Amino acid sequence: MANSIWTIEEFTCPGCGMKYTATREEHAEPHSGSFKCSICSGEVHTWSGNHHFFGWDAVKTKPRVFGRRWAGVEW
Fold this sequence. Notes:
The protein has strands at residues 6-12, 19-36, 43-58. The protein is mostly beta strands. It has one domain. Strand 1 and strand 2 (19-36) form a beta hairpin. The chain starts with 5 loop residues before the first strand and ends in a 17-residue tail after the last strand.
């Protein structure tokens, strides 16, 4: 694995919209595989070729903030 190229890629589950990141690693030999969503079990990504994906993580997002847009403004 020395001299391999790694990139971080983002994927979205087509079933529920959950976002994931995974590390893509280039290889000399072909690899194939797939990853399923941990929420809805939908297929997030499949691959085959001279690369492999590993280290799948759910993307943590901040919750939306609801409230007044113009705090401190009197109408």
